[in-house]
Write a structure and sequence with these properties.
Beta-Lactamase; globular; disordered N terminus; 14 strands; alpha/beta; eight-stranded mixed beta sheet; six-stranded antiparallel beta sheet; Rossmann fold
């Protein structure tokens, strides 16, 4: 891999062309030997909570959630409505069932779902009973209505975080150890292509945004998402969002199409919010053909599962296992796996892809976090 073989072997200058102090982990980059050492020091804590006013950049705007508005509290990241009689919230403590003062009937829920989806520029009806949309003030909503949702309207709201995190914030809150933060900062400086993996709600998007925020301000970042969610503290970010077909079934703009369009926008860094289908082919082609410094996320339960997941997605694009393995070997430099344990989000391991015949294996570069 490029950055293992050369970029990290040189001692970088302890300078930074960005405004503000240099993070303590950015002053010296690790060498390739340090990367591969099995004796890396385990530092940091295992808790994660948004910083106070001193950390990050406040950008959160109020969201009109009607009868659910009272559930927006500090630390709550998700609102989950499982029909008229069942509402849950998710926070650092995990899932918690809420008891509303006033009951919500099906008609109110359906009206709320349709209004939230419409605010995101999409439509919810019998022709499109399941919709994912971006909320105007940030965050995301997914809604499903009967008969697809058998027990009644289902609404899932991902609330926007009150801050845009930098790597230093994630170190402070325990998601990252100091040594891992230095390694990731070195990867960004070396223009490595990074795949962030983990389960739903593990912090993949948060980490990817923080990584891209540490890129040089002179670089142009283009993000591509089904629903815009990545938040990057950087002066030059272009966000592209897929578009749903209209009621006549025309006008759809897919992730695959957006990847191709983004390549014509002179990106220094190409970021795909999540690969979940045939767009993996175009993303791997782009990252493997000179568009260095990009990143994306992938649902996977462990580093060991990443290769199989990529092979499965490649199959959706009509690619055989051998082709996928060769494309991944050329396109992805590092895999960063995040997990959520007892409500705490943390980086559990960092690895690099290795091809064995027609199979992709992820070789750990750091000891597993326990």
């Amino acid at each position: 891999m490029r950055w293992f073989d050369s970029h990290l072997a040189d001692e970088p200058p302890a300078v930074d062309d960005r405004d503000g102090p240099i993070p303590r982990y950015a002053r010296t980059d690790p060498s390739a030997a340090e990367w591969m050492s099995p004796d890396a020091t385990d530092r940091g804590t295992d808790s994660f909570a948004p910083p106070g006013p001193a950390g990050g950049h406040a950008t959160r705007e109020p969201i009109d959630l009607g009868p659910l508005s009272g559930l927006i509290r500090p630390g709550v990241t998700d609102l989950l409505v499982n029909g008229p009689d069942e509402v849950w919230t998710d926070s650092e403590r995990g899932l918690h069932r809420e008891h509303l003062v006033e009951a919500i009937d099906e008609s109110v829920l359906r009206e709320l779902a349709a209004r939230l989806v419409a605010a995101g520029g999409r439509h919810l009806d019998h022709a499109t009973p399941c919709v994912d949309a971006r909320l105007p003030g940030g965050g995301r909503v997914h809604a499903a209505i009967p008969p697809v949702a058998v027990g009644g309207t289902v609404i899932s709201v991902r609330l926007p975080r009150p801050t845009v995190f930098a790597l230093a914030d994630l170190v402070e809150n325990g998601m990252l150890r100091d040594d891992d933060a230095r390694r990731l900062e070195a990867l960004i400086a070396a223009r490595a292509n990074i795949l962030v993996t983990g389960a739903a709600g593990a912090g993949k998007t948060t980490l990817l945004g923080a990584l891209m925020g540490s890129a040089s301000p002179t670089e142009r970042i283009v993000t591509i998402e089904d629903v815009q969610e990545i938040r990057i503290d950087h002066p030059h970010v272009i966000s592209l969002e897929a578009r749903q077909a209209n009621t006549e079934g025309i006008g759809e703009v897919s992730l695959t199409a957006l990847v191709r369009e983004a390549l014509r926008m002179r990106p220094d860094r190409l970021v795909l919010g999540e690969v979940r289908g045939a767009e993996v082919r175009d993303m791997l082609l782009a990252l493997g053909s000179g568009h260095d410094g990009g990143g994306t996320t992938l649902h996977a339960r462990s580093l060991d599962e990443v290769g199989v997941r990529l092979e499965m997605l490649g199959g959706l694009a009509g690619l055989g296992p051998g082709t996928v393995a060769r494309m991944v070997e050329c396109a992805i430099d590092a895999v960063v796996h995040v997990e959520r344990v007892d409500g705490a989000r943390r980086v559990a391991g960092i690895g690099r892809p290795r091809r064995r015949s027609d199979e992709i294996l992820i070789e750990p570069c750091t000891p597993p976090r326990v």
